[in-house]
Amino acid sequence: MSNAKILPILINHNPILRKKSTQIRRDEIKTKEFQRLCSDMAKTMEEKDGAGLAAPQIGKNIRLVVVRTENSAVCMINPKIIKKSWAKECGEEGCLSVPDVFGKVKRHKKIICKYLDKKGKEIKIEAEGLMARVIQHEIDHLDGVLFIDKARDIKKLT
Questions:
Q1: 15-156 is a CATH 1.20.1290.10 domain
Q2: Does the annotation count 46 as an active-site position?
Q3: DSSP string of the chain?
Q4: Catalytic residue among 93, 122, 128, 138
Q5: Tens digit of pLDDT for each residue in 99-139?
Q6: Nearest Cα residue to 120 out of 70, 64, 73, 53
Q7: Which listed residue, 27, 44, 85, 155, has the most CB atoms within 10 A of its CB?
Q8: Could you give the C-alpha distances from 102 to 76, 94, 152, in angstroms and in order?
Q9: How far is CA 112 from CA 11, 12, 124, 152, 154, in A?
Q10: What is the residue-averaged pLDDT of the chain?
Q11: Residue partners of 14: CB distance under 8 A and separation at least 6
Q12: What is the pLDDT along the chain (158 residues), one digit of tens a residue?
């Protein structure tokens, strides 16, 4: 990640943020360009202090998200939630594409998510709490949905 670069983040009202993203083909994953994109997105998320970052936020309508974990950034390719808990909880969210705005969003407490890693290997993870929230938030981006579409008690920092 040493030569990764920080990418510009699109801000709300950019039409790319409202488009549904396309699936990534397995043969694309192995390319240098794609691997670099994963590194650049991870670096961008870390520099901007985000919990996650979706490709549409950097102007690419492809199904790729990067999520921060305790010790690294995980690249999730074509992520799909295959199971959701019945229980939901409300929590505060913000978004790098909607700066200085926060709101309460109801999300599933636990999810099981299937995705491909950077090597093209299928991974299944069970996430709960903040991690589950971040994954749901980022997958929404891939479907052209922003958290402000679902949030209540929206506050703008001045």
A1: no
A2: no
A3: -TT--PPPPP-TT-GGGGSPPBPPPHHHHTSHHHHHHHHHHHHHHHHTT-SEEEGGGGT--BSEEEEE-SSSEEEEEEEEEEEE-S-EEEEEEEETTEEEEEEEEEEESEEEEEEE-TTS-EEEEEEEHHHHHHHHHHHHHHTT--GGGT-EEEEE--
A4: 138
A5: 999 999 999 999 999 999 999 999 999 999 999 999 999 99
A6: 64
A7: 44
A8: 25, 5, 9
A9: 29, 29, 7, 26, 28
A10: 96
A11: 59, 97
A12: 468 999 999 999 999 999 999 999 999 999 999 999 999 999 999 999 999 999 999 999 999 999 999 889 999 999 999 999 999 999 999 999 999 999 999 999 999 999 999 999 999 999 999 999 999 999 999 999 999 999 999 999 87
Tokens standing for residue 81:
């939630």
| CB 114 within 8 Å of CB 122 | yes
Residues 6+ positions from 86 with CB-CB distance below 8 Å: none
Residue the block writes with tokens 């994109």: 37
What was the pLDDT predicted at 2?
Answer: 60
pLDDT at 1: 47
Nearest one of 17, 9, 12, 39 to 143, comparing CA atoms:
17
Residue 156, both tokens: 């703008």
